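F.,

This is the one I mentioned.
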């Protein structure tokens, strides 16, 4: 851990006073400082001028990153009969109903995304205290409660990212891997920022997008100019 700290400090020194740079510059700096032995995730964090305690200031949604996330996503689907078969054919990793509910209640959660058909929500609803804190609860607003399980599964597997503002008004997500080409990371960053911008709630007052930063799993954060991030 000491070596990791030294590398992070060295990376910060290398960045120096560079702050509020363009998206392109931030991507180049983050990639250049991703020195871990594994393929680090490139992460974006956005501080928004919202108070999530108010329903009309909640920010949430999904975005299909043009170049994917580089991450293998395990998908679980709550469905029965023909819809269960459809989910399996679409590539879902786990499909079930009451049996899947019992598995989750037992503490086994071997999936990164959870999808459900509307008729399964009385069952899924019992798992709210387990799935909710993990941001895994199916929700029609982000397309994870749907009869079109084929599209939902394919989107989840193909680079769809969900986002939701936390209590402090922060939205964060992985937007690719350090091994991605710079141009592809830039495209992903801009697509994510655009989606968050379009999700601006009606109750938001004042500056909506306050700060945008980019980092790798083990690297320091780099502040991006809000104008550059939003294309202004």
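My design for it:
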């Amino acid at each position: 851990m000491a070596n990791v700290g030294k590398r992070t400090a060295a990376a910060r020194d290398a960045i120096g006073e560079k702050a509020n740079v363009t998206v392109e510059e931030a991507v180049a700096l983050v990639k250049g400082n991703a020195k871990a032995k594994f393929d680090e995730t490139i992460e974006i964090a956005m501080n928004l001028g919202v108070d999530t305690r108010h329903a009309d200031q909640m920010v949430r949604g999904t975005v299909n990153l043009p170049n994917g996330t580089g991450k293998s996503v395990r998908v679980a689907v709550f469905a029965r009969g023909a819809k269960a078969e459809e989910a399996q054919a679409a590539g879902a990793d786990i499909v079930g109903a009451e049996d899947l509910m019992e598995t989750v209640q037992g503490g086994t959660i071997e999936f990164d995304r959870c999808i459900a058909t509307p008729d399964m929500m009385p069952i899924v609803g019992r798992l709210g205290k387990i799935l909710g804190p993990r941001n895994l609860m199916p929700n029609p607003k982000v397309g994870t409660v749907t009869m079109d399980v084929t599209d939902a599964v394919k989107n989840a597997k193909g680079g769809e990212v969900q986002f939701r503002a936390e209590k402090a008004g922060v939205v964060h997500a992985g937007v690719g891997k350090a091994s991605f080409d710079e141009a592809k990371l830039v495209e992903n960053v801009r697509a994510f920022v655009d989606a968050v911008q379009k999700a601006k709630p009606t109750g938001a007052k004042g500056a909506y997008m306050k700060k945008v930063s980019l980092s790798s799993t083990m690297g320091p954060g780099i502040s991006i100019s809000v104008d550059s991030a939003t294309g202004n």
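Residues 57 and 203 are 5 Å apart (CA to CA).

Talk soon.
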